[in-house]
Amino acid sequence: MRRSLLYQVFPLYLFAILLAVGSLSFAATRVFRTAFYAEKRLDLTFTAELAVRLVQRDGAFDPDSAQEILSLVSRDGVRRTTLIAADGTVLYDSHADTSTMENHAARPEIITARDSVGTVTQTRRSATTGDNTLYAVTALRNDDGHIAAFVRVGGSVEQLDHRSRDALTALATSAVLILIATALMSLVIVRRILRPLGTIERAARRFAMGELDHRISVQAPEEISAVAETLNGMAAELSGTISAIREQRNELEAVLSAMVEGVIVVDDSLRIRSINEAAARLFQREPRGHDHRTLIEYLRNSELDAFAAEVLERNSTLERTIILYQRGPINLQVHGSVLRSREADRTGVLLVLNDITRLKRLEDIRRDFVANVSHELRTPITSVMGFLETLRDGAWKDPQRATHFLDIVSTHANRLNLIIEDLLSLSRLESHEGEIARTACHVEDVLARVSEACNQLALQREVSVEQTIEGEAAVLVNANLLEQALINLVSNAIKFSPHGGRVEVRCLQASDRIRISVEDHGPGIPYRDLNRIFERFYRVDRARSRDLGGTGLGLAIVKHIAIAHGGEVSVESVEGQGSCFVLDIPAPTTRAD
Protein backbone atom coordinates (compact mmCIF):
# COMPACT_ATOMS: atom_id res chain seq x y z
CA MET A 1 0.00 0.00 0.00
CA ARG A 2 1.23 3.36 -0.98
CA ARG A 3 1.69 5.85 1.70
CA SER A 4 1.25 9.59 1.16
CA LEU A 5 4.22 11.87 0.92
CA LEU A 6 3.05 13.50 4.12
CA TYR A 7 3.38 10.24 6.01
CA GLN A 8 6.61 9.52 4.34
CA VAL A 9 8.20 12.91 4.97
CA PHE A 10 6.49 14.13 8.11
CA PRO A 11 7.79 11.39 10.37
CA LEU A 12 11.26 12.09 9.06
CA TYR A 13 10.86 15.81 9.59
CA LEU A 14 9.29 15.20 12.97
CA PHE A 15 12.15 12.98 13.93
CA ALA A 16 14.63 15.52 12.62
CA ILE A 17 12.91 18.33 14.50
CA LEU A 18 12.75 16.31 17.70
CA LEU A 19 16.37 15.41 17.25
CA ALA A 20 17.33 19.02 16.55
CA VAL A 21 15.27 20.38 19.44
CA GLY A 22 16.57 17.83 21.86
CA SER A 23 20.12 18.28 20.66
CA LEU A 24 19.90 22.05 20.77
CA SER A 25 18.33 21.91 24.24
CA PHE A 26 21.14 19.74 25.51
CA ALA A 27 23.73 21.93 23.82
CA ALA A 28 22.06 25.03 25.23
CA THR A 29 22.26 23.55 28.72
CA ARG A 30 25.95 22.84 28.33
CA VAL A 31 26.65 26.26 26.84
CA PHE A 32 24.62 27.88 29.58
CA ARG A 33 26.57 26.07 32.29
CA THR A 34 29.91 26.84 30.65
CA ALA A 35 28.97 30.46 30.04
CA PHE A 36 27.74 30.81 33.61
CA TYR A 37 30.99 29.46 34.99
CA ALA A 38 33.02 31.56 32.57
CA GLU A 39 31.03 34.67 33.42
CA LYS A 40 31.38 33.92 37.10
CA ARG A 41 35.12 33.31 36.73
CA LEU A 42 35.56 36.44 34.61
CA ASP A 43 33.56 38.52 37.07
CA LEU A 44 35.59 37.30 40.03
CA THR A 45 38.89 37.64 38.14
CA PHE A 46 38.08 41.16 37.02
CA THR A 47 36.94 42.11 40.54
CA ALA A 48 40.15 40.71 42.09
CA GLU A 49 42.41 42.51 39.61
CA LEU A 50 40.46 45.74 39.98
CA ALA A 51 40.73 45.52 43.77
CA VAL A 52 44.51 44.97 43.54
CA ARG A 53 44.90 47.96 41.25
CA LEU A 54 42.90 50.16 43.59
CA VAL A 55 44.95 48.98 46.56
CA GLN A 56 48.24 49.60 44.72
CA ARG A 57 47.15 52.99 43.34
CA ASP A 58 49.27 55.02 45.83
CA GLY A 59 52.39 52.94 45.21
CA ALA A 60 52.45 51.18 48.62
CA PHE A 61 50.45 48.46 50.43
CA ASP A 62 48.24 49.85 53.17
CA PRO A 63 46.12 47.19 54.96
CA ASP A 64 43.57 49.73 56.22
CA SER A 65 43.06 51.20 52.76
CA ALA A 66 42.87 47.70 51.27
CA GLN A 67 40.16 46.63 53.74
CA GLU A 68 38.11 49.71 52.95
CA ILE A 69 38.29 49.02 49.21
CA LEU A 70 37.43 45.32 49.62
CA SER A 71 34.45 46.19 51.81
CA LEU A 72 33.09 48.35 48.98
CA VAL A 73 33.63 45.52 46.47
CA SER A 74 31.62 43.06 48.60
CA ARG A 75 28.90 45.52 49.51
CA ASP A 76 26.28 43.77 47.33
CA GLY A 77 26.62 40.60 49.47
CA VAL A 78 27.06 38.37 46.39
CA ARG A 79 30.84 38.43 46.30
CA ARG A 80 32.93 37.37 49.26
CA THR A 81 36.22 39.31 49.56
CA THR A 82 39.20 38.27 51.68
CA LEU A 83 42.54 39.99 52.35
CA ILE A 84 45.25 37.49 53.29
CA ALA A 85 48.76 38.38 54.43
CA ALA A 86 51.80 36.83 52.76
CA ASP A 87 52.18 34.37 55.66
CA GLY A 88 48.53 33.21 55.35
CA THR A 89 47.03 35.32 58.15
CA VAL A 90 43.50 36.51 57.29
CA LEU A 91 43.46 40.30 57.62
CA TYR A 92 39.89 40.87 56.42
CA ASP A 93 36.87 38.79 55.32
CA SER A 94 33.55 40.23 54.25
CA HIS A 95 31.52 37.16 55.37
CA ALA A 96 33.30 35.99 58.52
CA ASP A 97 35.08 37.12 61.65
CA THR A 98 38.82 37.02 60.95
CA SER A 99 39.62 36.27 64.59
CA THR A 100 37.94 32.85 64.25
CA MET A 101 39.47 31.96 60.88
CA GLU A 102 42.50 29.71 60.61
CA ASN A 103 45.66 30.43 58.64
CA HIS A 104 45.07 30.22 54.86
CA ALA A 105 48.64 29.56 53.77
CA ALA A 106 47.76 25.94 52.93
CA ARG A 107 44.64 26.80 50.89
CA PRO A 108 45.01 25.43 47.33
CA GLU A 109 44.19 28.75 45.69
CA ILE A 110 46.79 30.58 47.85
CA ILE A 111 49.46 27.99 47.03
CA THR A 112 48.69 28.30 43.31
CA ALA A 113 48.63 32.12 43.41
CA ARG A 114 51.95 32.21 45.28
CA ASP A 115 53.69 30.38 42.42
CA SER A 116 51.77 32.07 39.56
CA VAL A 117 51.83 35.41 37.82
CA GLY A 118 48.46 37.08 37.46
CA THR A 119 45.06 35.95 38.73
CA VAL A 120 44.32 32.29 39.38
CA THR A 121 40.89 30.73 39.80
CA GLN A 122 39.96 27.56 41.65
CA THR A 123 36.76 25.90 42.82
CA ARG A 124 36.49 24.11 46.15
CA ARG A 125 34.20 23.79 49.14
CA SER A 126 34.64 26.63 51.61
CA ALA A 127 35.55 25.56 55.13
CA THR A 128 34.02 28.79 56.44
CA THR A 129 30.64 28.94 54.62
CA GLY A 130 30.28 25.24 53.63
CA ASP A 131 29.32 26.20 50.04
CA ASN A 132 31.01 25.01 46.88
CA THR A 133 32.83 28.24 46.00
CA LEU A 134 34.72 29.58 42.98
CA TYR A 135 37.73 31.66 44.06
CA ALA A 136 39.81 34.20 42.11
CA VAL A 137 43.12 35.04 43.83
CA THR A 138 45.64 37.71 42.89
CA ALA A 139 48.98 38.25 44.62
CA LEU A 140 49.72 41.85 45.60
CA ARG A 141 53.45 42.40 45.08
CA ASN A 142 55.88 45.11 46.21
CA ASP A 143 58.23 46.97 43.86
CA ASP A 144 60.97 44.38 44.58
CA GLY A 145 58.67 41.52 43.43
CA HIS A 146 57.98 40.06 46.87
CA ILE A 147 54.40 39.21 47.81
CA ALA A 148 52.86 41.64 50.30
CA ALA A 149 49.40 40.08 50.49
CA PHE A 150 46.71 38.12 48.57
CA VAL A 151 43.35 39.48 47.44
CA ARG A 152 40.75 36.73 47.12
CA VAL A 153 37.27 37.17 45.66
CA GLY A 154 34.83 34.26 45.87
CA GLY A 155 31.31 33.40 44.83
CA SER A 156 29.03 30.42 45.57
CA VAL A 157 28.24 28.08 42.64
CA GLU A 158 25.82 25.75 44.43
CA GLN A 159 22.76 27.05 42.57
CA LEU A 160 24.62 26.78 39.28
CA ASP A 161 25.51 23.18 39.92
CA HIS A 162 21.91 22.36 40.87
CA ARG A 163 20.46 23.87 37.70
CA SER A 164 23.13 22.24 35.60
CA ARG A 165 22.35 18.82 37.02
CA ASP A 166 18.61 19.25 36.31
CA ALA A 167 19.26 20.28 32.74
CA LEU A 168 21.72 17.48 32.25
CA THR A 169 19.22 14.88 33.54
CA ALA A 170 16.36 16.18 31.35
CA LEU A 171 18.37 16.34 28.16
CA ALA A 172 20.71 13.37 28.51
CA THR A 173 19.14 11.42 25.60
CA SER A 174 19.31 14.41 23.25
CA ALA A 175 22.91 15.03 24.22
CA VAL A 176 23.93 11.49 23.22
CA LEU A 177 22.18 11.76 19.86
CA ILE A 178 23.62 15.18 19.01
CA LEU A 179 27.08 14.13 20.04
CA ILE A 180 26.92 11.06 17.74
CA ALA A 181 25.35 12.94 14.79
CA THR A 182 27.47 16.00 14.83
CA ALA A 183 30.72 14.87 16.46
CA LEU A 184 32.84 14.65 13.32
CA MET A 185 31.37 17.75 11.67
CA SER A 186 31.61 19.75 14.89
CA LEU A 187 35.18 18.65 15.38
CA VAL A 188 36.20 19.89 11.96
CA ILE A 189 34.30 23.18 12.30
CA VAL A 190 35.51 23.88 15.81
CA ARG A 191 39.09 23.18 14.83
CA ARG A 192 38.90 25.48 11.83
CA ILE A 193 37.44 28.26 13.96
CA LEU A 194 39.44 27.82 17.12
CA ARG A 195 42.86 27.59 15.50
CA PRO A 196 42.98 31.24 14.24
CA LEU A 197 41.11 32.46 17.31
CA GLY A 198 43.71 30.84 19.52
CA THR A 199 46.44 32.59 17.56
CA ILE A 200 44.65 35.91 17.99
CA GLU A 201 44.10 35.26 21.71
CA ARG A 202 47.81 34.52 22.28
CA ALA A 203 48.78 37.63 20.34
CA ALA A 204 46.35 39.72 22.38
CA ARG A 205 48.02 38.47 25.55
CA ARG A 206 51.41 39.49 24.17
CA PHE A 207 50.00 42.93 23.36
CA ALA A 208 48.72 43.19 26.92
CA MET A 209 52.21 42.34 28.21
CA GLY A 210 53.72 45.20 26.20
CA GLU A 211 55.01 43.30 23.13
CA LEU A 212 53.51 45.78 20.71
CA ASP A 213 56.01 44.92 17.94
CA HIS A 214 54.42 41.47 17.51
CA ARG A 215 52.06 41.00 14.52
CA ILE A 216 49.25 38.46 13.97
CA SER A 217 49.44 36.26 10.87
CA VAL A 218 46.50 33.85 10.35
CA GLN A 219 44.75 32.04 7.49
CA ALA A 220 41.10 32.30 8.41
CA PRO A 221 37.76 33.49 7.11
CA GLU A 222 37.41 37.12 6.17
CA GLU A 223 35.76 38.13 9.43
CA ILE A 224 38.49 36.61 11.61
CA SER A 225 41.24 38.01 9.36
CA ALA A 226 39.64 41.47 9.72
CA VAL A 227 39.84 41.15 13.51
CA ALA A 228 43.53 40.19 13.28
CA GLU A 229 44.29 43.14 11.00
CA THR A 230 42.42 45.49 13.34
CA LEU A 231 44.44 44.27 16.30
CA ASN A 232 47.68 44.69 14.33
CA GLY A 233 46.75 48.27 13.50
CA MET A 234 45.83 48.97 17.10
CA ALA A 235 49.19 47.59 18.29
CA ALA A 236 51.11 49.71 15.78
CA GLU A 237 49.24 52.86 16.81
CA LEU A 238 49.71 52.13 20.52
CA SER A 239 53.41 51.45 19.97
CA GLY A 240 53.86 54.81 18.25
CA THR A 241 51.88 56.65 20.92
CA ILE A 242 53.80 55.02 23.77
CA SER A 243 57.14 55.73 22.06
CA ALA A 244 56.19 59.40 21.64
CA ILE A 245 55.10 59.65 25.27
CA ARG A 246 58.28 57.93 26.44
CA GLU A 247 60.42 60.26 24.32
CA GLN A 248 58.63 63.32 25.65
CA ARG A 249 59.04 62.05 29.21
CA ASN A 250 62.76 61.41 28.69
CA GLU A 251 63.22 64.87 27.20
CA LEU A 252 61.39 66.44 30.13
CA GLU A 253 63.48 64.48 32.64
CA ALA A 254 66.68 65.47 30.83
CA VAL A 255 65.69 69.14 30.88
CA LEU A 256 64.77 69.02 34.57
CA SER A 257 68.00 67.18 35.44
CA ALA A 258 70.12 69.71 33.54
CA MET A 259 68.47 72.74 35.11
CA VAL A 260 70.47 74.74 37.64
CA GLU A 261 67.24 75.83 39.30
CA GLY A 262 65.50 73.41 41.62
CA VAL A 263 62.05 72.27 40.45
CA ILE A 264 59.47 70.58 42.65
CA VAL A 265 55.95 69.57 41.57
CA VAL A 266 53.39 68.72 44.27
CA ASP A 267 49.72 67.80 44.02
CA ASP A 268 46.87 69.58 45.76
CA SER A 269 47.60 67.52 48.90
CA LEU A 270 51.22 68.77 48.87
CA ARG A 271 52.51 65.30 47.98
CA ILE A 272 55.63 65.35 45.83
CA ARG A 273 54.98 64.21 42.27
CA SER A 274 58.36 65.17 40.84
CA ILE A 275 61.62 66.68 42.07
CA ASN A 276 64.76 67.29 40.00
CA GLU A 277 68.35 66.71 41.05
CA ALA A 278 69.09 70.39 41.72
CA ALA A 279 66.23 70.67 44.22
CA ALA A 280 67.10 67.37 45.91
CA ARG A 281 70.72 68.47 46.18
CA LEU A 282 69.72 71.70 47.92
CA PHE A 283 67.91 69.72 50.61
CA GLN A 284 70.49 66.88 50.64
CA ARG A 285 67.96 64.31 49.47
CA GLU A 286 67.69 61.76 46.65
CA PRO A 287 65.51 62.85 43.66
CA ARG A 288 63.88 59.40 43.35
CA GLY A 289 63.27 58.60 47.00
CA HIS A 290 60.20 60.69 47.74
CA ASP A 291 57.59 57.91 47.09
CA HIS A 292 54.85 60.55 46.81
CA ARG A 293 55.47 61.74 50.36
CA THR A 294 54.49 65.25 51.41
CA LEU A 295 56.88 68.18 51.34
CA ILE A 296 57.17 68.33 55.11
CA GLU A 297 57.79 64.56 55.35
CA TYR A 298 60.50 64.37 52.70
CA LEU A 299 62.26 67.75 52.75
CA ARG A 300 61.72 68.58 56.46
CA ASN A 301 61.28 72.29 55.76
CA SER A 302 58.23 73.93 57.28
CA GLU A 303 58.78 77.26 55.46
CA LEU A 304 58.61 75.64 52.01
CA ASP A 305 55.58 73.57 53.05
CA ALA A 306 53.78 76.65 54.35
CA PHE A 307 54.66 78.56 51.18
CA ALA A 308 53.23 75.83 48.92
CA ALA A 309 50.05 75.73 51.02
CA GLU A 310 49.74 79.51 50.73
CA VAL A 311 50.08 79.32 46.92
CA LEU A 312 47.22 76.80 46.84
CA GLU A 313 45.11 78.82 49.24
CA ARG A 314 45.53 82.08 47.34
CA ASN A 315 45.33 80.33 43.97
CA SER A 316 47.94 82.70 42.55
CA THR A 317 51.64 83.09 41.83
CA LEU A 318 53.87 84.02 44.79
CA GLU A 319 57.56 84.60 45.48
CA ARG A 320 59.45 84.33 48.75
CA THR A 321 62.98 83.97 50.08
CA ILE A 322 63.72 81.21 52.56
CA ILE A 323 66.98 80.28 54.29
CA LEU A 324 68.34 76.75 54.66
CA TYR A 325 70.77 76.14 57.51
CA GLN A 326 73.03 73.27 56.48
CA ARG A 327 76.81 73.56 56.04
CA GLY A 328 76.14 77.29 55.99
CA PRO A 329 73.15 79.51 55.38
CA ILE A 330 71.71 79.05 51.87
CA ASN A 331 69.37 81.75 50.58
CA LEU A 332 66.68 80.40 48.26
CA GLN A 333 64.33 82.49 46.17
CA VAL A 334 61.19 80.37 45.72
CA HIS A 335 58.70 81.02 42.91
CA GLY A 336 55.40 79.19 43.33
CA SER A 337 52.59 78.92 40.79
CA VAL A 338 49.38 76.89 40.61
CA LEU A 339 49.16 74.04 38.09
CA ARG A 340 45.85 73.82 36.25
CA SER A 341 44.18 71.38 33.86
CA ARG A 342 41.04 71.19 31.78
CA GLU A 343 39.42 68.88 34.28
CA ALA A 344 40.31 70.76 37.48
CA ASP A 345 40.98 74.34 38.47
CA ARG A 346 43.91 73.35 40.67
CA THR A 347 45.90 70.14 40.29
CA GLY A 348 49.02 71.09 42.23
CA VAL A 349 51.84 73.58 42.69
CA LEU A 350 55.04 74.17 40.73
CA LEU A 351 57.92 75.38 42.92
CA VAL A 352 61.06 76.81 41.27
CA LEU A 353 64.01 77.36 43.61
CA ASN A 354 66.94 79.65 42.82
CA ASP A 355 70.05 79.64 45.00
CA ILE A 356 70.81 83.34 45.49
CA THR A 357 73.36 82.81 48.25
CA ARG A 358 76.21 84.11 46.08
CA LEU A 359 74.17 87.12 44.96
CA LYS A 360 73.26 87.80 48.59
CA ARG A 361 76.89 87.54 49.61
CA LEU A 362 77.96 89.84 46.77
CA GLU A 363 75.26 92.31 47.78
CA ASP A 364 76.53 92.24 51.37
CA ILE A 365 80.10 92.74 50.15
CA ARG A 366 79.03 95.62 47.94
CA ARG A 367 77.15 97.23 50.81
CA ASP A 368 80.11 96.75 53.16
CA PHE A 369 82.47 98.05 50.49
CA VAL A 370 80.45 101.24 49.99
CA ALA A 371 80.24 101.77 53.74
CA ASN A 372 83.97 101.13 54.19
CA VAL A 373 84.97 103.40 51.29
CA SER A 374 82.77 106.15 52.66
CA HIS A 375 84.28 105.68 56.10
CA GLU A 376 87.86 105.58 54.85
CA LEU A 377 87.47 108.68 52.68
CA ARG A 378 85.49 110.68 55.21
CA THR A 379 88.33 111.04 57.73
CA PRO A 380 91.02 112.50 55.42
CA ILE A 381 88.52 114.65 53.55
CA THR A 382 87.11 116.01 56.81
CA SER A 383 90.64 116.75 58.05
CA VAL A 384 91.63 118.45 54.81
CA MET A 385 88.47 120.57 54.78
CA GLY A 386 88.87 121.46 58.47
CA PHE A 387 92.48 122.58 58.21
CA LEU A 388 91.84 124.49 54.98
CA GLU A 389 88.96 126.25 56.71
CA THR A 390 91.31 127.08 59.59
CA LEU A 391 93.90 128.45 57.18
CA ARG A 392 91.28 130.50 55.40
CA ASP A 393 90.13 131.96 58.71
CA GLY A 394 93.59 133.47 59.32
CA ALA A 395 95.91 130.71 60.38
CA TRP A 396 97.95 131.29 57.20
CA LYS A 397 99.24 134.52 58.75
CA ASP A 398 101.18 132.44 61.30
CA PRO A 399 103.91 130.77 59.20
CA GLN A 400 104.69 128.08 61.77
CA ARG A 401 101.06 127.02 62.24
CA ALA A 402 100.38 127.33 58.53
CA THR A 403 103.29 125.02 57.71
CA HIS A 404 102.07 122.49 60.30
CA PHE A 405 98.53 122.59 58.94
CA LEU A 406 99.73 122.24 55.36
CA ASP A 407 101.84 119.22 56.34
CA ILE A 408 98.74 117.63 57.84
CA VAL A 409 96.71 118.45 54.72
CA SER A 410 99.49 116.98 52.57
CA THR A 411 99.53 113.80 54.67
CA HIS A 412 95.79 113.29 54.31
CA ALA A 413 95.95 114.15 50.62
CA ASN A 414 98.65 111.51 50.19
CA ARG A 415 96.46 109.05 52.09
CA LEU A 416 93.56 109.81 49.74
CA ASN A 417 95.90 109.34 46.81
CA LEU A 418 97.07 105.96 48.18
CA ILE A 419 93.47 104.79 48.68
CA ILE A 420 92.54 105.83 45.14
CA GLU A 421 95.66 104.18 43.69
CA ASP A 422 94.91 100.95 45.54
CA LEU A 423 91.28 101.03 44.36
CA LEU A 424 92.44 101.56 40.78
CA SER A 425 94.89 98.68 41.15
CA LEU A 426 92.09 96.42 42.38
CA SER A 427 89.88 97.52 39.51
CA ARG A 428 92.60 96.80 36.95
CA LEU A 429 93.28 93.38 38.49
CA GLU A 430 89.59 92.41 38.50
CA SER A 431 89.14 93.48 34.88
CA HIS A 432 92.25 91.60 33.65
CA GLU A 433 92.17 88.45 35.80
CA GLY A 434 93.48 85.54 33.72
CA GLU A 435 94.82 87.93 31.02
CA ILE A 436 98.00 89.23 32.64
CA ALA A 437 101.25 89.28 30.68
CA ARG A 438 103.88 86.84 31.98
CA THR A 439 107.62 86.99 31.43
CA ALA A 440 110.52 84.83 32.56
CA CYS A 441 112.23 86.14 35.69
CA HIS A 442 114.17 84.93 38.71
CA VAL A 443 112.37 85.04 42.04
CA GLU A 444 115.55 86.09 43.85
CA ASP A 445 115.62 89.26 41.71
CA VAL A 446 112.02 90.04 42.67
CA LEU A 447 112.79 89.43 46.36
CA ALA A 448 115.84 91.67 46.12
CA ARG A 449 113.68 94.54 44.88
CA VAL A 450 111.13 93.82 47.62
CA SER A 451 113.88 94.01 50.28
CA GLU A 452 115.10 97.28 48.84
CA ALA A 453 111.60 98.76 48.82
CA CYS A 454 110.94 97.70 52.44
CA ASN A 455 114.43 98.38 53.78
CA GLN A 456 113.70 101.89 55.08
CA LEU A 457 110.58 100.71 56.94
CA ALA A 458 112.53 97.77 58.41
CA LEU A 459 115.29 100.10 59.63
CA GLN A 460 112.75 102.43 61.23
CA ARG A 461 111.15 99.59 63.18
CA GLU A 462 114.47 97.76 63.76
CA VAL A 463 113.08 94.59 62.15
CA SER A 464 115.33 92.14 60.30
CA VAL A 465 114.07 90.52 57.08
CA GLU A 466 115.49 87.05 56.39
CA GLN A 467 115.13 85.37 52.99
CA THR A 468 115.40 81.67 52.07
CA ILE A 469 115.17 80.56 48.43
CA GLU A 470 115.08 76.97 47.15
CA GLY A 471 115.55 76.63 43.39
CA GLU A 472 117.17 78.94 40.87
CA ALA A 473 115.26 78.36 37.62
CA ALA A 474 113.44 81.25 35.94
CA VAL A 475 109.65 81.22 36.24
CA LEU A 476 106.88 82.65 34.09
CA VAL A 477 105.04 85.29 36.13
CA ASN A 478 104.14 88.95 35.99
CA ALA A 479 107.16 90.26 37.89
CA ASN A 480 105.65 93.69 38.68
CA LEU A 481 102.46 92.20 40.16
CA LEU A 482 104.41 89.57 42.11
CA GLU A 483 106.69 92.31 43.48
CA GLN A 484 103.66 94.43 44.47
CA ALA A 485 102.05 91.47 46.30
CA LEU A 486 105.25 90.65 48.17
CA ILE A 487 105.85 94.29 49.12
CA ASN A 488 102.35 94.40 50.62
CA LEU A 489 102.92 91.18 52.58
CA VAL A 490 106.45 92.06 53.78
CA SER A 491 105.57 95.66 54.71
CA ASN A 492 102.55 94.40 56.69
CA ALA A 493 104.75 91.86 58.46
CA ILE A 494 107.27 94.60 59.35
CA LYS A 495 104.57 96.98 60.57
CA PHE A 496 103.03 94.40 62.88
CA SER A 497 106.33 92.97 64.17
CA PRO A 498 107.64 94.20 67.52
CA HIS A 499 110.77 96.41 67.56
CA GLY A 500 113.83 94.26 67.13
CA GLY A 501 111.68 91.47 65.70
CA ARG A 502 112.22 89.20 62.70
CA VAL A 503 110.35 88.61 59.40
CA GLU A 504 111.07 85.37 57.53
CA VAL A 505 110.48 85.13 53.77
CA ARG A 506 110.74 81.61 52.33
CA CYS A 507 110.47 80.73 48.63
CA LEU A 508 110.10 77.19 47.32
CA GLN A 509 110.24 76.74 43.52
CA ALA A 510 108.81 73.57 41.98
CA SER A 511 108.59 72.57 38.33
CA ASP A 512 105.19 74.14 37.84
CA ARG A 513 104.59 76.57 40.72
CA ILE A 514 106.17 78.71 43.40
CA ARG A 515 105.23 78.93 47.05
CA ILE A 516 106.28 82.03 48.98
CA SER A 517 105.57 82.43 52.69
CA VAL A 518 105.96 85.60 54.78
CA GLU A 519 106.00 84.97 58.53
CA ASP A 520 106.13 87.47 61.39
CA HIS A 521 106.12 87.12 65.15
CA GLY A 522 103.71 89.92 65.94
CA PRO A 523 100.38 89.95 67.75
CA GLY A 524 98.73 87.54 65.30
CA ILE A 525 95.17 87.57 63.99
CA PRO A 526 92.14 86.42 66.01
CA TYR A 527 90.51 83.27 64.66
CA ARG A 528 87.19 85.04 64.04
CA ASP A 529 88.90 87.47 61.61
CA LEU A 530 90.84 84.95 59.50
CA ASN A 531 88.01 84.39 56.99
CA ARG A 532 87.61 88.14 56.34
CA ILE A 533 91.21 89.33 56.42
CA PHE A 534 91.39 89.57 52.60
CA GLU A 535 88.24 91.72 52.24
CA ARG A 536 88.55 95.34 51.16
CA PHE A 537 89.05 97.78 54.04
CA TYR A 538 88.76 95.02 56.63
CA ARG A 539 91.04 95.65 59.59
CA VAL A 540 91.58 93.64 62.74
CA ASP A 541 92.67 96.74 64.67
CA ARG A 542 91.37 99.79 62.78
CA ALA A 543 93.09 102.44 64.90
CA ARG A 544 96.51 100.79 64.77
CA SER A 545 96.23 100.07 61.04
CA ARG A 546 95.58 103.73 60.26
CA ASP A 547 98.39 104.82 62.56
CA LEU A 548 100.74 102.55 60.60
CA GLY A 549 99.65 104.16 57.33
CA GLY A 550 97.66 101.29 55.77
CA THR A 551 94.76 101.79 53.36
CA GLY A 552 93.00 98.53 54.21
CA LEU A 553 93.36 97.34 50.61
CA GLY A 554 96.80 95.72 50.61
CA LEU A 555 95.71 92.16 51.33
CA ALA A 556 92.78 92.44 48.92
CA ILE A 557 95.31 93.40 46.22
CA VAL A 558 97.47 90.39 47.14
CA LYS A 559 94.44 88.11 46.83
CA HIS A 560 93.55 89.39 43.36
CA ILE A 561 97.17 89.19 42.17
CA ALA A 562 97.17 85.52 43.23
CA ILE A 563 93.85 84.93 41.45
CA ALA A 564 95.14 86.69 38.32
CA HIS A 565 98.00 84.14 38.26
CA GLY A 566 95.55 81.26 38.80
CA GLY A 567 96.76 80.74 42.37
CA GLU A 568 95.67 81.56 45.89
CA VAL A 569 96.79 83.23 49.09
CA SER A 570 96.13 81.85 52.57
CA VAL A 571 96.97 82.74 56.15
CA GLU A 572 97.73 80.80 59.31
CA SER A 573 97.86 82.67 62.57
CA VAL A 574 97.87 82.09 66.31
CA GLU A 575 96.87 85.11 68.37
CA GLY A 576 99.88 86.38 70.31
CA GLN A 577 102.40 84.28 68.31
CA GLY A 578 102.40 85.82 64.85
CA SER A 579 101.05 85.19 61.37
CA CYS A 580 102.21 83.37 58.24
CA PHE A 581 100.85 84.43 54.81
CA VAL A 582 101.40 81.94 51.96
CA LEU A 583 101.29 82.93 48.28
CA ASP A 584 100.90 79.82 46.10
CA ILE A 585 100.72 80.43 42.34
CA PRO A 586 101.28 78.33 39.21
CA ALA A 587 104.54 79.48 37.60
CA PRO A 588 106.09 76.98 35.17
CA THR A 589 109.87 77.06 35.09
CA THR A 590 111.67 77.99 31.89
CA ARG A 591 115.21 77.94 30.53
CA ALA A 592 115.07 81.63 29.70
CA ASP A 593 117.29 83.94 31.78
User: How many structural domains in the coordinates?
Assistant: 5
Q: Quickly give the CATH architecture of the largest domain.
A: 2-Layer Sandwich
Number of helical segments with 4 or more residues: 15
The rounded Rg comes to 46 Å
Give the CA-based shape. Answer: elongated
List low-pLDDT spans. 4-10, 543-549
The helix content is: 40-55%
- Strands of the largest sheet, in order across it? 2-1-5-4-3
Structural class: alpha+beta
- The name of the CATH topology of the largest domain is Heat Shock Protein 90
Classified in CATH, the superfamily of the largest domain is Histidine kinase-like ATPase, C-terminal domain
Span between termini = 148 Å
Residue-averaged pLDDT: 76
Strand proportion, as a percent range, falls in 15-25%
The number of distinct β-strands equals 18
* The level-1 CATH class of the largest domain: Alpha Beta
Largest sheet: 5 strands, antiparallel
Please explain how this structure is put together:
This protein has 593 residues and is of the alpha+beta class. The chain has 5 domains: 40-169, 2-Layer Sandwich (Beta-Lactamase); 176-244, no CATH class; 259-355, 2-Layer Sandwich (Beta-Lactamase), CATH 3.30.450.20; 361-428, Signal transduction histidine kinase, dimerisation/phosphotransfer (DHp) domain (Helix Hairpins, Orthogonal Bundle), CATH 1.10.287.130; 432-590, Heat Shock Protein 90 (2-Layer Sandwich), CATH 3.30.565.10. It is 51% helix and 20% strand. The protein is built from 15 helices and 18 strands. It has helices at residues 5-55, 63-73, 108-114, 158-170, 172-208, 222-258, 277-282, 295-299, 302-314, 357-392, 399-431, 443-460, 479-495, 542-547, 554-564, and strands spanning 80-85, 90-93, 119-125, 132-141, 147-156, 262-267, 272-275, 318-325, 329-339, 348-355, 439-441, 464-470, 474-477, 502-509, 513-519, 568-574, 578-586, 589-590. The strands form 4 sheets. The chain has a 5-stranded antiparallel sheet with strand order 2-1-5-4-3, with helices on both faces. A 5-stranded antiparallel sheet has the order 7-6-10-9-8, sandwiched between helices. A 5-stranded mixed sheet has the order 12-14-15-17-16, with helices on one face. The longest helix is centred in the N-terminal third of the chain and has 51 residues, at 5-55. It is elongated, with a radius of gyration of 46 Å. The termini are far apart. 24% of the residues are buried. Residues 4-10 and 543-549 have low confidence and may be disordered.
